[in-house]
Amino acid sequence: MILQKLIKKIKFQKMMKDKKNSEPKDEKGPQSISISKNLQDNLHHIQNILSSNADLIIRKFTFGKNKTEAFIINIDGMSAATAINENILGALMRDVGKSFDDKELSIDSIKDGALNMNDVSKISYMEEAIESILNGDTVLFLDEENMALQIGTSAWEHRNVEQSASERVVRGSHEAFTESIRVNTSLIRRRIKDPNLKIEQMKIGWRTRTTIGIIYIHNLANDKIVEEVKRRLKSIDTDAILESGYIEEFIEDAPLSIFPTIGNTEVPDKFSAKILEGRVGILVDGTPTALTVPFLFVECFQTAEDYYSGSFLSSQSRLLRFLALHVSVFLPGIYVALTTFHPNIIPKPLLLTILTTRENIPFPALVEAFLLMIMFELIREAGIRMPLAVGQAVSIVGALILGDVAVNAGVVSPFMIIVVALTAIMGFLILPLTDPVTLLKFPILILASTFGLFGIIWSYIFIVIHLVSLRSFGAPYMSPLMPLTLKDLKDALIRVPWWLMKTRPQAISWRNSLREKEDLKPEPPSKKTVGDNKS
Amino acid sequence: MIKRMAFILLLIMSFIVVTGCWDRVELNDRAFIIATGIDKDQESGKMVTTLQVIVPEKIDTATKKGGGENAAVQIVSAKGSTVYETLQYIKFELMKKPYFQHNRILVIGEQAAKEGVTPYLNFFMRTREGPERSIILVSKGNASEILRWQSDVKKIPADYIEGLVHGEDIFSMTSTENIHEFMVKISGNTTSPYTSGIEIRKNEESGKEEAKVTETAAFKKDKLVGWLNLEESKGMQWINNEFGTGIIETGYPEMNNENIILKMIKSRTELKPKLKDGKMIMTIEVKGEGNIEELKGNVALNSQKVIGNLEKNISTEVKNEIENCLKQAQKTLKTDIFGFGEAIHSKYPKEWEKIEGHWDDYFPGMDVEVNVKIKIRNTGMLIEPI
Amino acid sequence: MYKEKISANQALMLVLAGGVGNIFVVIAVPAIKDAGRDGWISVLLAYGIAALIGLTLIQLGKRFPDKTFVQYLPIVIGKIPGKIAGLFYIIAFWVMTAHILRVALELMKFFLPETPSVYVSILMSILMVYVMKKGFEVFSRTAEFFSITMIVLIFILILFILPDLEWANLAPVMENGVMPVIKGLRTQVPYAAETILFMAIWLPCLNDGKKATKALLIGMLISGILLTALVAVNIAFAGIELTPKQLYPVFYISSYIQIANTFAGFEAIFMTLWLSTAYLALQVFFYPPVVGLAQWLNLKDYKPLIIPMTIVIIALATVPSNVIEVLKVDTLKNPYVILPLSLLIPFVWVVSVIRKLDES
């Protein structure tokens, strides 16, 4: 029954998909309407297309000695008003008469000689005009011209460059990306002043016309990967892209896997580091979250700060994160398996303690674990969704009061609280893997309570097979662990000092893999050299 | 792909449904056995199993000490013809299934031990619950007495007995073997097992009953054949290279036999069989080093001569212990608890083939040479007597 | 035909996976039964002999660089005999996969005595099917991980049991001359040669054929030493009288380990060890019949064969009625199935040299 329903649902979805595929052709708006020589026609056209828009400003004016008719269109709030007033209207109405003969007055001479703006180009189709208007640019229409001028005035309110809320560091740059793609590209350019840094741009979404930036370093990134990224991006045919998450789901290698195969970051220094390793970055306008591909599993354990602070401590914290992953996925299962299947593994003193605390608990260990884990997920969800001040209150009530009362009331055992709390905290250590960690806990718990340790190890093998079978834009996901790449282990579970990081990750870069000179290990000048200097 | 995922999901769902049967047993439904006693009932000829089972309610983790009436164990016993059968009766009594996973002690009554332990050990080797590491003790009298005895110090009496036995090991009085070591020897050809004996004695002064480890039970194959007293037990530890860092108590003859306590820091025994005129001679070479911990009396340890005398004296003492033990084992008990047979086997495989058949007759008449060399390394913080 | 490629490193791990595989559970008893105290010498020698057979296989691989054993058999020894030998090879491995699954299920009874075996069997075959569908590359990558895990765990097991060992149990060495050792080879060479027969199928996948010899020799050395150590530890632990009386001596060792008088019950380590080796062994034995059958039938892709063949394996695994029969199969398969098959490799090599067949 359920299967049949599912199949029906899938069929329905397929149908919807086909429908969507047919939509774009009708929906893309006016196709190739040329700008006419008649100014009034153009005005009508635009008013037709952009009708009932309160924020549309159309300014008709005349300029020059011949009182040439013209109008400019822009959208209020999306363009820089001072620039329009000073550099377009001011230049045309005030200065043109002084410096131009009317004979010379043409669209080219205005473009080249009158407008003191840096981004001006000629357009000849209506939809180009519409697009640039919607983009915040100003379009200048002149009478008797079958072309218009698009003037880059787009400037809208955006957030300043601030600290990232999700990726905080103690040491290192505190800047984070903003919603504006231009600001973001500038943040990257400021870090990598290499002429080979390429920023290619395309627009996706036939309604949102979202700007997508593909960023890579020409000689470092594998051409095949760059081509593949472009191919996958081009194949996205949808009406709206509001966040990079949309893109992520459209171009993933393993769409049904719960493991992320595309990296994301909010901070430009991390992004730049990834680009410098030969990865390809994708910036999406309207979101501070940028994407990087290919994404390897070990990247989940790397943070920007690992590279700024000492290598020994970084290595230790990476190993801890690796341990945290295992704990957060397997601990509840292991606890249930040990207590209900293999109590001989628990040392006797510990067993006695568990026995005393569990004596009057009404539920089996599985139910107990389930209850607490679901409770925790609820509290966490509430903590995230609620306003900041209330959220804290919720977590205090949830964590302190509920937990304490539950133990005192004898509903759950204190050990289970320890286990679930530990699991939850460990889960926060590895943010990129939040999805799999949260989702995997429950099936593993069930397997563990049915088959004991066998269930745990079975699921471990299953997960390993799954992980190993993944690829991210051609790079084996589990590299450098499986397949074992000895050269890359230097920056996987540990981080070696910078003077030993001689090569880029082998799984990604294909040439120019050397990134520093040999023998960079810092050493004090030896006694002999000092002596030489003295003499 | 989605269909397959749905299938796997259904499979997992089905596990939820079937969960609850099979091998899952909640901690609350398990009874953990901490010590086991096995006796032979003379009248009926059946066996009696006595178990010490942990009672979680009575374990107050905050105050682990104390005992007596508050012992955190329940004593249950049942009569039957096999271990498994008695366990079934006990299961009814407890309303929980007993588990051997944390069993630490197996006490065998003297009578049962005399008639052979293999029939009982079979169960412990066969069960999946893996109690091979449980130590075997032989009780003087019934095993159930030992299990019913309650400690003043520990909430779990078995913990006390375990500490007692391991403690005795540290002071090198008797040696204890566990089920595995026992089985290896029983299934082997010549060597026989031994283990500590335990008894409940009434303390004359306080009037309380105390568990004491005093003698070593010597087996011949799986049957108890006799006891070695404390002196002989020490000798046996020397021969079996188990003395370790034990204590030697001896006198100094020129000084009114004042007591000297020597704590060994290392000791080593080697069994070296020799072939002399077609006859096997076993040489026991003992080497050891120790520190003087206490010296009652007016002895100045300031010359090499005094130390030398002392060393010689101690060595003779140890030699006597060993020879006493050998006499008891060879002449009275006639059981090879030292592994002489194995030693000959690995050094003289050819000759061993001739002896192997009549080893039981050969062993009591074997000549043994004992060489002991004990050195004194340290005399403590004093040289001259105070 | 099959474009999957593996690296030299992975080849080494595959040799190890086949070499240690599920064998570590069952090798001690037959070794001691045949060769007594010197069982460990038999094991070491057997791995030496198997390595020699492996070398002839590599020589064959050089003559037919793009073909597997099943494919060049008909070319070398004639079409019909070759096809029959190939079919024998395929069916033997097919049935042996079922046998290994059954051994795994029997061992699982230690942990889950009341759970119906069929559930465990289904879970194990889900792993088999899953990894086979993902391809040989994925398997060799997991083999890298689990082989290393396996070696580390066996090492830990040996390390923890060291204090309880009685090395005197190993003396006297070669008490009854070399004959028992030779007799032991009869059962031990087939165990060691299993990995070579597995190699016969994956050898063309190796991306750098020159490194095959190195991978083979290192792999056989490591697995030979590991298993020799394991058998020696078994003898030193429980003696030659108690060990053969047990069903799974290695399991017995693991349950005996105790550290600091507190931590016991090392079945957890054993379970991890056993499951990862069972996974590897099942795959090692399942891959040759699937790929072999596809090549024998001249199919383009082996993937459609996976599920039907797995179902047959699950069914076959239920055939022996009890554990004694399972052990009987184990003693029968070595001299009558694997030994002839492993001797076939040098034979085929000699024939190909005489007939001067060379496709490289």
TrEMBL record, chain A:
<dbReference type="InterPro" id="IPR004995">
    <property type="entry name" value="Spore_Ger"/>
</dbReference>
<feature type="transmembrane region" description="Helical">
    <location>
        <begin position="445"/>
        <end position="468"/>
    </location>
</feature>
<protein>
    <submittedName>
        <fullName>Spore gernimation protein KA</fullName>
    </submittedName>
</protein>
<keyword id="KW-0812">Transmembrane</keyword>
<comment type="similarity">
    <text>Belongs to the GerABKA family.</text>
</comment>
<dbReference type="GO" id="GO:0005886">
    <property type="term" value="C:plasma membrane"/>
</dbReference>
<feature type="region of interest" description="Disordered">
    <location>
        <begin position="515"/>
        <end position="535"/>
    </location>
</feature>
<dbReference type="InterPro" id="IPR050768">
    <property type="entry name" value="UPF0353/GerABKA_families"/>
</dbReference>
<keyword id="KW-0472">Membrane</keyword>
<dbReference type="Pfam" id="PF03323">
    <property type="entry name" value="GerA"/>
</dbReference>
<feature type="transmembrane region" description="Helical">
    <location>
        <begin position="386"/>
        <end position="407"/>
    </location>
</feature>
<dbReference type="GO" id="GO:0009847">
    <property type="term" value="P:spore germination"/>
</dbReference>
<keyword id="KW-1133">Transmembrane helix</keyword>
<feature type="transmembrane region" description="Helical">
    <location>
        <begin position="413"/>
        <end position="433"/>
    </location>
</feature>
Automatic annotation (TrEMBL), chain B:
<feature type="domain" description="Spore germination protein N-terminal">
    <location>
        <begin position="23"/>
        <end position="199"/>
    </location>
</feature>
<keyword id="KW-0449">Lipoprotein</keyword>
<keyword id="KW-0309">Germination</keyword>
<dbReference type="InterPro" id="IPR046953">
    <property type="entry name" value="Spore_GerAC-like_C"/>
</dbReference>
<keyword id="KW-0472">Membrane</keyword>
<feature type="domain" description="Spore germination GerAC-like C-terminal">
    <location>
        <begin position="215"/>
        <end position="380"/>
    </location>
</feature>
<keyword id="KW-0732">Signal</keyword>
<dbReference type="Pfam" id="PF05504">
    <property type="entry name" value="Spore_GerAC"/>
</dbReference>
<protein>
    <submittedName>
        <fullName>Uncharacterized protein</fullName>
    </submittedName>
</protein>
<comment type="similarity">
    <text>Belongs to the GerABKC lipoprotein family.</text>
</comment>
<dbReference type="GO" id="GO:0009847">
    <property type="term" value="P:spore germination"/>
</dbReference>
<dbReference type="InterPro" id="IPR008844">
    <property type="entry name" value="Spore_GerAC-like"/>
</dbReference>
<keyword id="KW-0564">Palmitate</keyword>
<dbReference type="GO" id="GO:0016020">
    <property type="term" value="C:membrane"/>
</dbReference>
<dbReference type="Pfam" id="PF25198">
    <property type="entry name" value="Spore_GerAC_N"/>
</dbReference>
UniProtKB/TrEMBL annotation, chain C:
<feature type="transmembrane region" description="Helical">
    <location>
        <begin position="145"/>
        <end position="165"/>
    </location>
</feature>
<dbReference type="GO" id="GO:0016020">
    <property type="term" value="C:membrane"/>
</dbReference>
<feature type="transmembrane region" description="Helical">
    <location>
        <begin position="12"/>
        <end position="33"/>
    </location>
</feature>
<dbReference type="GO" id="GO:0009847">
    <property type="term" value="P:spore germination"/>
</dbReference>
<keyword id="KW-0309">Germination</keyword>
<dbReference type="InterPro" id="IPR004761">
    <property type="entry name" value="Spore_GerAB"/>
</dbReference>
<keyword id="KW-0813">Transport</keyword>
<keyword id="KW-1133">Transmembrane helix</keyword>
<keyword id="KW-0472">Membrane</keyword>
<feature type="transmembrane region" description="Helical">
    <location>
        <begin position="185"/>
        <end position="203"/>
    </location>
</feature>
<keyword id="KW-0812">Transmembrane</keyword>
<feature type="transmembrane region" description="Helical">
    <location>
        <begin position="39"/>
        <end position="60"/>
    </location>
</feature>
<feature type="transmembrane region" description="Helical">
    <location>
        <begin position="305"/>
        <end position="324"/>
    </location>
</feature>
<dbReference type="Pfam" id="PF03845">
    <property type="entry name" value="Spore_permease"/>
</dbReference>
<feature type="transmembrane region" description="Helical">
    <location>
        <begin position="116"/>
        <end position="133"/>
    </location>
</feature>
